[in-house]
């Protein structure tokens, strides 16, 4: 596996390699069907609806839905100095791996990370290794990162509906955000995260609408 595309390996190759290895070990324990692109695309629409569910519901369903399409999804806590929020690579030509660290601990970050990594699987080559996090992406990967960002943003919040929501003038109110989230079928925290990212909503506003996650002692989400 070629890690040279990542700046992270210039400073902490051991920590990052250990984190990635943990993901591979857990992924090996997930029985997966042979990868099917069409089935994976269909599964993502089902996964999207899981954003409104609590972790004890969405995590096993997410793993199962993706495994049935040839994609193993694992949740591995970040190791010190890795700074990674997610990673995507192919274990072989029939099985892809999405690895998430829950680094930012809120639902908007978790779900964006998942769909971002899914975008890499659908849009980019099987030889590529994608690592997400502060100081992780290399310059030569920026175009692919932007493509994955756009994929995640659009599947979570359809552009036409988002534009209509902004035109309504309700994007700065708790009630407006909750109503829009319910209308498009996603968690309100995801809408808050998008508005904050786009500079429409201050970073200090409506954070109570985000669901926070923590790791429990057996290394699973709580």
Distance between the termini: 32 Å
Q: How many E-type strands?
A: 4
Order of neighbouring strands in the sheet with most strands: 1-3-2-4
What is the gyration radius calculated from CA atoms?
17 Å
Shape estimate: globular
Specify the helix fraction band: 40-55%
Strand content range: 5-15%
- Low-pLDDT ranges: 1-11, 217-222
Count the helices. How many?
9
Q: How would a textbook summarize the main sheet?
A: 4 strands, mixed
N to C succession of SSEs? HHHHEEEHEHHHH
Q: Structural class from helices and strands?
A: alpha+beta
- Mean of all residue-level pLDDT scores: 87
Topology:
Elements (H helix, E strand, L loop, with lengths): L7 H4 L1 H16 L8 H13 L5 H13 L3 E5 L8 E9 L2 E6 L6 H17 L6 E4 L8 H15 L2 H10 L5 H11 L3 H10 L25
Parallel strand pairs: 1-3
Antiparallel strand pairs: 2-3, 2-4
Q: What does it look like?
A:
- With 222 residues, the chain is α+β, with helices and mostly antiparallel strands.
- The chain has helices at residues 8-11, 13-28, 37-49, 55-67, 107-123, 142-156, 159-168, 174-184, 188-197; strands spanning 71-75, 84-92, 95-100, 130-133.
- The protein has a 4-stranded mixed β-sheet, with helices on both faces.
- Strand 2 and strand 3 (95-100) form a beta hairpin.
- Helix 3 runs antiparallel to helix 5 and helix 5 (107-123) crosses helix 9.
- The chain is globular and about 50 Å long.
